[in-house]
């Protein structure tokens, strides 16, 4: 199954000049959704991890299933002000704009191995910031998994020191 | 397993007077996370549905796994401005504040049966707005599932015409 056939391309979203890769058309198609998860799980299961961490909010859709299937805990990395207990924060630039991410201080114990999952690899800023949050807590990032990779933005370069995998690649 | 033991109570979050039920402590505990999902799936599998719809963003964590396990499509209901294609919108009041939700017009086909999932039932405003969005598209809401229900806020009354289930109940 060619998963890219289920991705919808939307020009000029969220701002002019950006060609947005819309995964909702894949998610709503039961066979494409299942195939995407199964392909992602095949990659995830190569790694032995203690936790799966996910970047809010589309990352949750894929990461929670992978955490469940690996039978490990799920860690949400969230936008500022959403996590209720003590957090650490990290600012980062993204394809369009600047943002900040937070993780609970008690989310990951020192020495734990973590798989990081998000829907899309663009410049890699979001994933790099997330990986740093995990490392600041003493965790190690075993691999970073994406549904989609926009190769032209060279996110893999920024994430050079990590094992990075993606299911669908756009030049 | 008593799932409520894995929920952390945080006073005065996000605003003074609110006792926040923090699910991140459950999510990160692999056995509690698995048990919560398996209990939710047991309820979900009583219904025959075409789609699972989830409310951004914590709803995604539970709903995507249920959609995957039921082998049906996953529909995200999102905060304004996030969905890239044509949408319909619905305003609603929540426990603290007012908000708006959107769904893609092509998310659900007329006559499709939908299971709606979110993490928390408070006043029910978010779920009621989401159910209305599904119905406006011609779908039927077979049931609404929550991890946590805050009984004192009487959300079940507002959702009176739906089948509503929750795993953990607080008075």
TrEMBL record, chains A, B:
GO molecular function, one term: adenine phosphoribosyltransferase activity
InterPro entries noted in UniProt: Ade_phspho_trans, PRTase-like, PRTase_dom, UPRTase/APRTase
Classification via CDD domains: PRTases_typeI
UniProt pathway annotation: Purine metabolism; AMP biosynthesis via salvage pathway; AMP from adenine: step 1/1
Catalyses which reaction(s): AMP + diphosphate = 5-phospho-alpha-D-ribose 1-diphosphate + adenine
Gene3D superfamilies xref list: 3.40.50.2020
Cellular localization per UniProt: Cytoplasm
EC number(s) stated in the UniProt entry for this protein: 2.4.2.7
The keyword Transferase appears for this protein: yes
Tree of life domain: Bacteria
Record-level GO BP terms: adenine salvage; AMP salvage; purine ribonucleoside salvage
Cellular component GO terms, alphabetical: cytoplasm
Entry keyword Magnesium: no
Main subcellular location: cytoplasm
Keywords of the record: Cytoplasm, Glycosyltransferase, Purine salvage, Transferase
Record domain Phosphoribosyltransferase: where: 31-145
Task of the protein: Catalyzes a salvage reaction resulting in the formation of AMP, that is energically less costly than de novo synthesis.
Family: Belongs to the purine/pyrimidine phosphoribosyltransferase family.
Subunit structure comment from the entry: Homodimer.
NCBIfam families recorded: apt (TIGR01090), PRK02304.1-3 (NF002634), PRK02304.1-5 (NF002636)
Cited HAMAP family: Aden_phosphoribosyltr
PANTHER family assigned: ADENINE PHOSPHORIBOSYLTRANSFERASE (PTHR32315:SF3)
Protein name: Adenine phosphoribosyltransferase
Organism per entry: Candidatus Fischerbacteria bacterium RBG_13_37_8
